[in-house]
Design brief:
mainly alpha; 6 helices; rod-shaped
């Protein structure tokens, strides 16, 4: 008596499984990016110097998440048209990818973009503070070399003419990492520098970074 073997059960679509894996990876990278973003914000509160490592890591995670999301969606749709295969993983991937496209991408923009802008502004502020310190050091050296008295002053333009700054550099042109209008260049603002006194970042520069940075933020110290 011949036995009739039941037909083999259809296996899961390999394309659907690949779609599901891409989807889970995209979600995982997104979560890691959010965690790194939160760590970066916490770090900015105690350290005025923008954490470059956090920025690069967050950018890498978010980029991978965004790239894997459409790949998962495309593979999931392809798996739905696979004949003779189970498409459970493909269906789940399409649903999750669609959810991420509709809800997670705006959330990503709401979290990542402000943090990137905030870190960029802080980086520009740090560069400005370093420029002011360089100007002060140059003024002190100029005062020593020219035997200044306590009341003597020097201008930024005098320091430029004396070649205290590298020619062609931003500071040599009276600019910082952000472009100043003519009335706010270093030459226009630092017209009287006392070599024996600490040179503070003027209020006119601090106002350029509000409201992201308060004019009394510790970064200006």
């Amino acid at each position: 008596m011949n036995t009739i073997e039941p037909p083999p059960l259809p296996s899961q679509s390999k394309v659907g499984i690949a779609s599901f894996v891409c989807c889970l990876s995209s979600i995982g990278f997104f979560i890691l990016g959010v965690i790194v973003s939160m760590m970066m914000v916490a770090s900015l509160r105690s350290n005025p110097q923008p954490p470059t490592g956090f920025l690069m890591t967050m950018g890498a995670f978010m980029t991978l998440s965004v790239l894997l999301m459409p790949a998962s969606l495309v593979l999931g749709v392809i798996s739905l048209f696979s004949k003779g295969k189970k498409n459970l993983f493909g269906i789940i991937a399409v649903c999750l990818s669609g959810f991420m496209c509709l809800f997670m991408v705006p959330l990503l923009a709401a979290i990542a973009v402000p943090n990137f802008l905030r870190a960029r502004i802080r980086a520009q502020a740090v560069t400005l503070v370093n420029d002011v310190r360089m100007i002060q050091s140059a003024a002190e050296q100029y005062g020593i070399e020219n035997e200044f008295s306590r009341s003597d002053t020097v201008s930024f333009d005098d320091l430029v003419q004396a070649d205290y700054f590298k020619k062609g550099s931003k500071i040599h042109q009276g600019q910082s990492s952000m472009t100043f209008p003519r009335e706010l260049t270093y030459g226009a603002v630092f017209t009287e520098i006392h070599p024996g006194r600490k040179l503070e970042v003027p209020e006119v520069y601090r106002n350029l970074f509000t409201p992201t940075l308060n004019t009394h933020d510790r970064i200006w110290e």
